[in-house]
Structure formats: structure tokens, C-alpha cells
Amino acid sequence: MTILIALMLAAATPSSTEDTQVVHLKDAKFTPAKGMPEGVFSAPIGVDPNTKGGTGYAKLTSGTKLGEHTHSFAEYTSLIKGNGTLTVEDKSYDIEPGDYFILAKGTRHSLTCKQGADCVLLTRRAGPTDYNFTKTASK
């Protein structure tokens, strides 16, 4: 029984970002992201054993808006599919596949996936993942 529990826990824990991996987007197992609006999904890749910062894919279905929020640590993200509008501190940017953005800790931002196709992002975080939604944001 103890081995079964250990195997179940190991399967549920993302790999270390310090381990060699080859990750294919086509194999990502997206699940609804906890505490996020409908239409936001995540697929963890790994966690840094020192900073506890995660790396993973996120998917927003076409037309989904992730309301304004901040994080306690820097975020490093690239849009790899779809088209969106990234708003950073009240300035909006059209983003397309291949675009990369760095958001310093505490930076207010939101993301809307434009109609027509789902958006897929690859994100690495400098510390544990948190979402601090602003009072005006509706998740």
C-alpha cells in the first residue's frame, strides 16, 4: 500500500526543472486551472527545486479573458499558439506566436485570447505560482 501511495504521489508531482526532459506540446495533459475562469487550462512541466517556480503550458480557449492580476515573483512567458491582447499596467499589446514577455513581480497585467483559435503559452516563474486578482478584475 505504501508503494502504491508513493507511486501515486510521484505521478502527481511535476518533474524538477533541473532534470533533463524533452517535452512535446502535443502530449501535454491540460486540465482546468484551479481558481481560474472557465476556459483556462494548465499542463505543468516542472518545478525548480530551489525557487519552487513552476514551468508549464497554459491554454486559454478562444475569447477567454484572464482578468487583471499580479504575481509575487517574475513571470517569463512566450505565446506559442493563437493571438491575444496582453495589457500591462494599462498599456495593451497585440501578441502573436513567438512573442515573449517578462513581467516583473507586482506588475498588473491581463490577457485576452482573441476569437478564432485557442491560445497556448509557455511560462516559467521565478518563484511559486500565485495570482492576485485586482478588485476590478473578474476572474
Write structural notes for this entry.
The protein has 139 residues and is mainly β. 8% of the residues lie in helices and 43% in strands. It has one helix and twelve strands, in the order αββββββββββββ. The chain has one helix at 2-12; strands spanning 15-16, 31-32, 40-47, 54-60, 65-70, 75-81, 84-88, 91-95, 100-103, 109-113, 119-125, 132-133. The strands form two sheets. Strands 1, 2, 3, 4, 6, 9 and 11 form a seven-stranded mixed beta sheet that branches. A five-stranded antiparallel beta sheet has the order 8-7-10-5-12, with no helix packed on it. The N and C termini lie far apart (40 Å). Residues 1-11 have low confidence and may be disordered.
Proportion of strand residues = 35-45%
Query: Which shape, going by the Cα principal axes?
Result: globular
Q: Report the mean per-residue pLDDT as an integer.
A: 90
Helix content: under 10%
* Separate helix tally: 1
- What Rg, in angstroms, do the CA atoms define? 16 Å
Note poorly predicted spans.
Answer: 1-11
What is the number of strand segments? 12
Largest sheet: 7 strands, mixed
Question: By helix and strand content, what is the structural category?
Answer: mainly beta
